Amino acid sequence: MALLFSSPVDDPKPWVAAFARELPDLEVRVWPAVGDPDDIEFALVWKPPLGLFPRLTLLRAILSLGAGVEHLLDHPELPPGVPIVRMVDDSLRVGMTEFVVMRVLHYHRRMPEYEAQQRARVWRQLPQSAPADRKVGILGLGVLGASAASALAGFGFDVSGWSRTPKSLPGVANHTGEDGLFALLERSEILVCLLPLTRDTLGILDSTTLNALPRGAYLINAARGGHVVDNDLLSALDAGHIAGATLDVFDIEPLPAQHRYWTHPKVMVVPHAAAWTLADIAINPVIDNIRRSRSGQPLSNLVDRKRGY
Ligand code: NDP
Ligand code: OXD
Predict the structure, then answer these.
(1) d(Cα 84, Cα 67) in Å, to the nearest integer?
(2) Rounded distance between C-alpha atoms, residue 225 and residue 258, angstroms
(3) Residues 209-236, buried b or exposed e (16+ Cβ, 10 A)?
(4) What are 286-308's pLDDT values in tens digits?
(5) If you average pLDDT over residues 163-191, what whole number do you get?
(6) Nearest ligand, CA of residue 141?
(7) Less Cβ crowding at N or C end of the chain, within 10 Å?
(8) Contact yes or no for 30/67 (Cβ under 8 A)
(9) Cα–Cα dist 268/291, whole Å
């Protein structure tokens, strides 16, 4: 029996080596070398191409190489009824936490203003607040949002998070529902988006929500480009309502060369690199689920197709 690996961005070599080391009885094939499609029990994929799923009629599970699964749920050939597992692993969790902490500290410690001063050769010390006086809001308190929120709370920031269901995280205030969203926005001097992209969260960062933030707030979007209405963010930046944005994800990736984000002085563009799925670490939850599937145990980190994440 075999696993089929397919990704336009992930190098298959470390995965093939990790499977050979950890689960030598599993044959790993790399798309498009499918061989006999009836051998394929598992598909480990990121943005699978058209033509892949229809050939795999005996799949036991689809394993996502990423935490976000809209690349599967929006796939026109997604087979119904096959369980989908999203990526939950320490490489993504730690990488995302580092990224969020790095950018929150950058804004909290007024680095954009010091960079502007340096360009003008200005030597001026700006007043600095303590982390306890800096209000940070996190949209999404799942695996990644909760980890980032807890790390920021550990620095002493005043952290609030928004989730669909109530959460109890030490040092992190929790909001739910639409009222809760606006309560969080109104206080967030730095807003971090770590939501999944679903029909409920598509375009959530539009002129209404961005204008609910305090004037001079910063935005860090490391979730999906579809969460942001680009023209609304650009207007809020140009009007000075939003002081700056770190954008790791975009509606169209790679970000088209003519897009205004590339040259906007208040925007930092990162090429979808906030967190990486590292094969040597992520192999553990993948193998655990393969073993579970083979022994008839329930899989972990299953996607709820109706909920969309
Ligand atoms: P999880 O599924 O663990 O967490 C999602 C969180 O969002 C949960 O807290 C969930 O609430 C909340 N949520 C979902 N829908 C709503 C809603 N309608 N209203 C309020 N809260 C909502 O996901 P992860 O933390 O693992 O990942 C989050 C996203 O990060 C991924 O979907 C992906 O898009 C992005 N990502 C980006 C990467 C990058 O490199 N830029 C890397 C990895 C992921 P509840 O807990 O109540 O269900
Ligand atoms: C993911 C991603 O969803 O890399 O894991 O964006």
Answers:
(1) 11
(2) 16
(3) bbebbeeebbbbbbbbbbbbbeebbbeb
(4) 999 999 999 999 999 999 999 99
(5) 98
(6) 1
(7) N
(8) no
(9) 42
Tokens of 63: 């394993």
Find out whether 62 and 85 touch, Cβ atoms under 8 Å.
yes
Do residues 221 and 237 make contact, with C-beta atoms less than 8 angstroms apart?
Answer: no
Written as six digits, the tokens of 141 are 């308190």
The secondary structure of 259-289, three-state, reads CHHHHCCCEEECCCCCCCCCHHHHHHHHHHH
CA distances, 279 to each of 13, 30, 67, 176, 209 (Å): 9, 15, 14, 35, 37
21 belongs to the catalytic site: no
Atom of ligand 1 nearest to the CA of 86: 26
Predicted local distance difference test score (pLDDT) of residue 111? 98
Write down the catalytic residue from 224, 260, 291, 292: 224
Decide whether any atom of ligand 2 lies within 6 Å of the 143 Cβ: no
Look-up of token digits 């992209």: 197
Given 272, 291, 292, 307, the catalytic residue: 272
Closest by Cα among 269, 161, 166 to 221: 269
Distance CA 204, CA 232 (A): 11
